[in-house]
Amino acid sequence: MFRFLSGALHLTFQGLASSVECDSQHFPVDNRCCAKCPRGSKMHLHGVIFLRFLAHCLPCPPGTYTEFSNYLDRCLLCERCSEDHGMEERRTCLPNQNRRCRCMKGFFLEPPQVPGRDADMCYRHQQCQPGEGVLKEGTRRSDTSCAPCAMGMFSQGGNHTCQVWTE
């Protein structure tokens, strides 16, 4: 008898069809709207909702996040900023926001491959060759532009502009 009552007090997500429409803070289960967990948290009981249709949520552990209200059973891993790829942290990872990365000084980003991400991989700014000077200094979003020095000017290359030749 206790097993039957215990089973009656819980509903699972799986296999329950629903035709009810819910607002953005709820999700449908068995023709009822159940509360989602707030951003920065996850559903504690995977696949189980108590008969009262209230979510039992836990905060995301360090290094994980959820940016929106949800019914996930685990938080998402925060992005890593790889120094090996010329990246540094621009925004820290918090329970309610993903870490954001940007290019370190001396590196630039080509358009990201994943929409919404600031950086997939950053590339070191090119160094001008001897006889070339910096036409446009590189930024975090663009590479350095080099151009040959004009007659009567010189540059040893690197990240220097062309200088007037003096005797």
TrEMBL record:
Cysteines joined through disulfide linkages: 60-75, 128-146
A GO CC annotation given for this chain: extracellular region
Coiled coil regions, renumbered to chain: none
Domain TNFR-Cys: 59-101, 102-146
Pfam families cross-referenced by the UniProt entry: TNFR_c6
GO molecular-function terms, A-Z: transmembrane signaling receptor activity
Major location (coarse): secreted
Signal peptide residues on this chain, from the entry's feature table: 1-19
Residues in TNFR-Cys repeats: 59-101, 102-146
Record localization: Secreted
The keyword Cell membrane is assigned to this record: no
Keywords: Apoptosis, Disulfide bond, Glycoprotein, Repeat, Secreted, Signal
GO biological process: apoptotic process; immune response; signal transduction
PANTHER family xref list: CASPASE-8-LIKE, TUMOR NECROSIS FACTOR RECEPTOR SUPERFAMILY MEMBER
Protein name: TNFR-Cys domain-containing protein
Annotated source species: Branchiostoma floridae
